[in-house]
Amino acid sequence: MDRMPSGFHCRETVMRKHGFTLIELLVVIAIIAILAAILFPVFAKAREKARQTSCLSNLRPLGTAAMSYCQDYDEKFPIDYLVTGVVVVGGANQWRYLLYPYIKNWQIFQCPSGRGSYDFSSPYSQLCVNYGINGSVFTTTGFAMGSILAPARVYFVGDSVHWFGSQYWTAYAGNGSDGYFNAGPTGTPSMATDEHSRHNGGSNLNFCDGHAKWMRNTDIVGNWSTLSNPSLP
């Protein structure tokens, strides 16, 4: 029968009794804290990137619906509100009722990073802090497609802190933790920064030719007049 080598049992006992020292534990904790500080922002950005993609997936059907509406109604965009047969409550935007028959999904009107959740089928609910329209395209009478000189450059709906996005509310859409009127000339200047944007420093916009894309907020602000004015070439 083989015998255990001399001294092996003692060494094994010593190894079993050996543990981490306080310094070693502190080093491990420090490493974990450093890794967490590095990885958590990465995870948060990746999560918001997924929401940005989901938001863009919402805007594309809205663009298709608007194009279909224009084809059915003398090539004119929907009006902004005061839709015949729909009760107007507190100036609630009604254009969504004109696009809904082409979409048949109220959740399309909810941005994944928007603030709050609403029943968009109810006229008592506005689209605040979700999507806002370009009031120069969605007018009270219906703007003609043929009058838009550069439809691929002019937006008609996008991320916004107000359903009526003409006054820079679209430029500074704001994220879920931001306040209500946090944008534009009448808003809070400290909120007019990329870190307060909705999707990683920018917003999603849908344009009058039907395409949708993400734009950095600084680019939206810097090109606001050409993005919002359908009469410019």
Explain this structure to me?
This protein has a 4-stranded antiparallel sheet with strand order 1-2-3-4. It has 5 helices and 4 strands, in the order H-H-H-E-E-E-E-H-H. A hairpin with a 4-residue loop joins strand 3 and strand 4 (212-216). By secondary structure, it is α+β, with helices and mostly antiparallel strands. The chain has one domain (20-228). The protein has helices at residues 8-17, 22-72, 95-103, 217-222, 224-228, and strands at 131-133, 155-159, 202-207, 212-216.
What are the key terms here?
233 residues; alpha+beta; 5 helices; 4 strands; 35% helix; 8% strand
Short description:
This protein is an alpha+beta fold.
Number of β-strand runs: 4
In quaternary terms, these chains amount to: single chain
N-to-C CA distance: 98 Å
Strand order in the largest sheet:
1-2-3-4
Counted up, domains total 1
Radius of gyration: 27 Å
What count of helical segments does DSSP give?
A: 5
Mean pLDDT: 74
**Helix share bin:** 25-40%
Main β-sheet description = 4 strands, antiparallel
Apparent shape = elongated
Low-pLDDT stretches are 176-187
How would you classify the helix and strand content by structural class?
Answer: alpha+beta
**Proportion of residues in extended strands:** 5-15%
**Pattern of helices and strands:** HHHEEEEHH
